[in-house]
Amino acid sequence: MKKMAAVLLVLSFMLVSLGGCSSGNDPTRSVPDETENQPSVTEANSDVISEEDAIGEEEYKASCTSYAYREIARYPGKYSGEPAYFCGEVFQVMEDEDDVALMVNVTESDWGWEDTMFISYTRKSADEARVLEDDVIEIWGDLGDLYTYETVLGDTQSVPSVAAEYINILGVDTSSETASLEEQSSDEISDSSSDGVYVGSIDENGSVVSYISNTVSEEDAYESLAELVPLSDGQGFRYLGTEMMDINECHSFSLYEDTPDHYATLAYYLVDPSGFVYEHDIITGEYIPIGW
Q1: Whether the Cβ atoms of residue 76 and residue 146 lie closer than 8 Å to each other
Q2: How far apart are CA 183 and CA 38, in angstroms?
Q3: What total number of domains does the chain contain?
Q4: Please, which pLDDT band fits residue 61 given cuts at 50, 70 and 90?
Q5: Which of 77, 163, 213, 248 is deepest in the core (most CB within 10 A)?
Q6: How close are the terminal C-alpha atoms of the chain, in Å?
Q7: Average pLDDT score over the chain
């Protein structure tokens, strides 16, 4: 009888405990009657989870700190695991279903965005908006170790990394494109050169600066590039128009990879008026000559 009484006592305690879990955090709340107007357990739990997620997101974002890029690049181990906030422009996207890897420049300057970081992120749902190249985004996440990758030329680069918890898409930064178009439309003037190679432009101080416009065709520039940078399966070059490098107006290309698993931009190239090819170093912002 004593054993039976003990068993009954344990069972009674278990039933009371289960009843407490179902009533939530309010010990005074009674179990509702089952009526047609009563929300289902699934709906009620969903509302609680959504509210908890919202509070958790707000608290996490509030805990994130903005760091100077050179500080975290110089001392990555010191800040590894710290929650951080960054805002920057995306220039490369790699996707594997809901797992996303981004290369983002996080420092805005007078001539564009610089200071590259590697961002890893997993979408919260299939309906979440995709991040695209040229998007300006906000990032909240934990700082990690340096991310090292190999460039197309075989060199290695190491940049700070963040495991993002939340991402917010602000839009596309078109300010540099707009400024460039306005400058071309309002400031270009004719030069006395008969062959049209030299074009005059007026800088912000009112001085006339001459540069060399591109005399090679887009097709010839593509051929020069293809000879120096062999393509693998799924890779190709995308023509981006013209871009200034020093005093040269060059043809601009991006190297992309398009496979069933992902689409990614791998590198950027310029071909100058003489057909010489340069690769754009995304870390330093410099153009590296690679040959004819």
Answers
A1: yes
A2: 65
A3: 2
A4: very high
A5: 248
A6: 97
A7: 74
